[in-house]
Design brief:
alpha/beta, 10 helices, 34% helix
Amino acid sequence: MIDSALVHRTPDDRFTALPDYPFAPHYCQVSDVQCGALRMHYVDEGPRDAPVVLMLHGEPTWSFLYRKMIPPVACANYRVIAPDHIGFGRSDKPKQRSCYSYQGYVDWLCQFIETLDLRRITLVCQDWGGPIGLRVLSEMPQRFNAVFATNTLLPNCEVAPRGVADWPGKQIVDWIDTCRNADDLPISEIVAGTCVERPGAAILRAYDAPFPDASYKAAALQLTCLIPTTPSMAGIEENRRAWNTLEKFTHPFVTAFSDNDPSTKAWESVFRARVPGAELQRHCEIKNAGHFVQEEKGEELATALIDLLRQMYGDRL
């Protein structure tokens, strides 16, 4: 049973009648040293025996972000798995910031993949989905067949061209400071503020749905503070080792960054230059979209993803 003194579980009625999100909930259990067993939610659509497309969200969103991409990819006969990271969406939410660490997110996702025994994975990653997902790929590369990266990064504090010059920059530093000193965040306004066009009211309410009040937002507040921005921070050495693995990754690695996301855009060229699997791929740029490109251009992003999958597996229809 959940320890309600340590962990929040968002009531199910917060997730009723969400726009364009008809997916049945699925759950698996991951373990945590401080909080014990935690329930992790995921969407699971498409044939169960098909190659897996693992869609990882970032901060402060949840699997709702992928609602425009899940149906077309599943209809193309792939198994789409879209989990909610611990602390987000329908997954359990430890109440204390100290319960969250970069390594903890990597460990939780490793457990998730092993519990479901996911293989032939195409990793779709955006925002924190990259730092978490690419680290997991580096620890179990045999389970991954491809990467489809959009508006993400893998911080390494290395000089260009191995890293990004002048990273993290004032925008990211200021955002980290805001989260470090805050005790609440306007979740939907964060999403809206990085979009080229503001989403409608019902969409924004869906992004707020996992968080009945500020006490549910420890992960949303803390995750930004875990971005390793200096060589001495937790995660940098592990990320550099992950880059060593990526430099040997010869499976397809496709970038599909948007044209209006200054916080991650510079990492696009680093991935293309350092990952051998990125050579000769059909990289694309998604026009007129901000950081949460799935929200604004999900259908277009799904088309590019299906193009990659068909290159790998042929037409499965």
